[in-house]
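Slide 14.
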Amino acid sequence: MKTVILSLGGSMIVPKDVDYYYLREFKNFIIRLLDEGYKFVIVCGGGKTSSNYMYAANRVSENNNEDLDWIGVQSSRLNAELVRVIFGPLAYEKVVIDPTQKITTKKPIIVGAGWKPGWSTDYVAVKLAEKLKADELVNLTNIDYVYTKDPNKFPDAKKVYETTWAKYRKMISSKWSPRLSTPFDPIASELAQKIKLKVAIINGKYLTHVSSYLKGETFDGTLIK
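Slide 15: predicted structure.
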């Protein structure tokens, strides 16, 4: 069986409120691929839950990045518990919060979440890929492609269909912060480059593109390797 690492962006789980319509579609999609011989490690982000709680904290008091990061970590763990529960007996009974721990299970689905301050869920996903010797990871996010610049600010921004880690890392910030918005974060990117991991950035709304990518077919998204 082929193990696929999915970094499921929190924006897919909680774009505003919990999107149970999407979660139902996502569940059915994963189950179909299980029948085709895949296994999955799904690492969940914090989404709007995280940003709402960080916003509330900052409205009340001044906070350091570590404290805000803990809000993000715990938000991702809540989302991960939701995803674990919807898969029922197909999923490993515990959410993995430490990607260095030993995982012993025959379940076809493992769900992971935030680890500790300073490390995003993208980083956790890359660490699990390294641990499980997976050679590719799919990042399910709310954008269609990586762009050369922020397309919301620069009308001349161009889609990037395929690139290297060296080139991608020059496009983004080199530092991580709890509120950083980037297709794949800098710390995770550094490790992915080191272990020669392929990462596909795909809009999670279009799960057929994920299936196409896994089968080696043409897909809409960006491949970084």
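Speaker note: The chain is about 40% helix and 15% strand.
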